[in-house]
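Same chain as my last thread, 327 residues:
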Amino acid sequence: LSSVAVVWFGGHLIDSGQMPVGNLIAFLAYILQIMFAVMMALMMVIFLPRAAASAVRLEAVLETQPAIRDPERPIEPQAKTGAVEFRDVTFGYPGGEKPVLHGLSFQLRPGATTAIIGGTGSGKTTLVNLIPRFFDVTEGAVRVNDVDVRQQPLETLWSSIGLAPQQAYLFRGTIADNLRFGKDDATEDELWHALEVAQARDFVAAMPEKLEAPVDQGGTNLSGGQRQRLAIARALVKRPRLYLFDDCFSALDAGTDARLRSALKPEARDAAVVIVAQRVSTILAADQIIVLDAGRIVGVGTHQELMSTTEAYREIVASQLGEEAVA
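reply #2:
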């Protein structure tokens, strides 16, 4: 409106010969400059409170102290055996109305494979996450290498654990970069050996760049089964004393699953192995099977022992393998 008023008033002055055309154009340019300056000032007035609020939130994030941190007086384990012990463990998520796990007590022995099975929401993944101390127990204690995980330096604890999580996540880079996350100085021979055990050698060897093949963020350029096998290979490269496989065989077909478990057994013969599984066929040969139901242990034993003692386990077997497997 101001520009229209200037043009209208200036037009009359020019028409009457009281002002040249150049003055009108200059006046319009000054008006536009003033308008832009006023608009910028208004934008600053609007955005300054937003920026201040954002700065407060960023400062709060940067100053946040992690709930899981190194103890003030850490205790180093005398030996890294891979042994794990749950002592009357109860756990509830912060803000939760009731505990997720109730009074769990069991041991994981080096050289033995322990399987954890149960229905959806029974607490299998939560149980596994307590071992590397992703969360602290509410009651009781989790001991790894005969020392409470809350008393160990985090790097010491994590150095003895090889984890293949439920959601296999890969980082942007190459296949070799992802496999070396657990062991920076791993040789190519070690990488290929881990890929062979994880049943991933064939598809990696078929890629033009092989170990230098690019991987997108999250591994989105690979299938679900390929991501899971690479995550398993990444854990194997580390050669830890304790393996945690959190339902990481779910995207594999039955044949690949069987070959992987067969190749894994001699590879991890001296380590403690924990397998969280939904499929009964994956855990039939486990040395120890822990059955969870609503966060409680309802059975511990071998497949044959549980078939004769634990109703919840028989129901899982019957639902997957048929009633004839229970008979």
